[in-house]
Amino acid sequence: MDLEFKSLSAEALEDLTRYYGRRHDQTCDSVILDNFLWAKYYHVHYAAIGERALLWTMNIFGKQYAALPVCAMEDLPEYFGILERYFNEELKLPLEIYLADEPAVEYLNLPAERYSVTEVPDSRDYLYSAEALRTLSGKALHKKKNNLNAFARAYEGRYEYRTLCCSDSHDVWVFLDKWREGKGQQVEGHLDYEVEGIHEILRNCSILNVRMGGIYVDDALEAFSIGSYNAREKMAIIHIEKANPEMRGLYQLINQQFLIHAFPEAELVNREDDMGLPGLRQAKMSYAPIGFARKFRIRQLDFVPEQRSET
């Protein structure tokens, strides 16, 4: 089968979204927006196979990887095989899946003599009760509620939550410029790509299936969030959450209000991974996750590259 991989564009997203939601998956990769957000950073490309499957490849730090095929669970072995043949025959490489979700790994049940399957703990997604994050009730979230109440007292009558739309893009750009400037030069290498990805979302928000919300203080945007919804899992996925760190309780407020207004139907919340960063891990753990969406690296072991004949 000849596969034609294309670079990802905003125009393609609406059509490609139809491949999602065909099997159980609670990772942030169960919706398409993350691929678009990080398309340039990971050099993301896709190939659609009829109506049944969508394949993804990416180049990460100079190494070629793939994602698991996006398809129904019963079709996964077939398209996993097609992806493997593409890597072996076209790229002359062993197949490597960068991050595979746990239900798919269990279903594939790959033989240990042919594949290495290793969990990547730093890439597990944090899962939360949507109701708990909306109410901040209970001992575990008491400190979060105190911070939120402190913000409400300090800025009483001066703030409001607003659902953001395409016409609000300028406000987000102004906020991002200030936020990025505040980070300085000593930051994670991915940060500028994240900002660029957010700009791409805002430029194309009229054709993207995203939900956005922000907190305005004195009529200036001081926090915003961008998310997607996985209807099969009744799960909100929070891709982006930024806030002015000088305002105590603002992160708690945007977290809560975004769920209340943008995802009233959600029962589960995926707040993505911590990238192995201790500060981010501490922040995500402080919201009392109810579980994790574990991810695995898969590497083909039995690939033997073709030997060039000596003449």
From TrEMBL:
Phosphatidylglycerol lysyltransferase C-terminal domain sequence ranges: 36-297
Designated name of the protein: DUF2156 domain-containing protein
Domain of life: Bacteria
Pfam family, one: LPG_synthase_C
Listed SUPFAM superfamilies: Acyl-CoA N-acyltransferases (Nat)
PANTHER family documented for this protein: DUF2156 DOMAIN-CONTAINING PROTEIN, PHOSPHATIDYLGLYCEROL LYSYLTRANSFERASE C-TERMINAL DOMAIN-CONTAINING PROTEIN
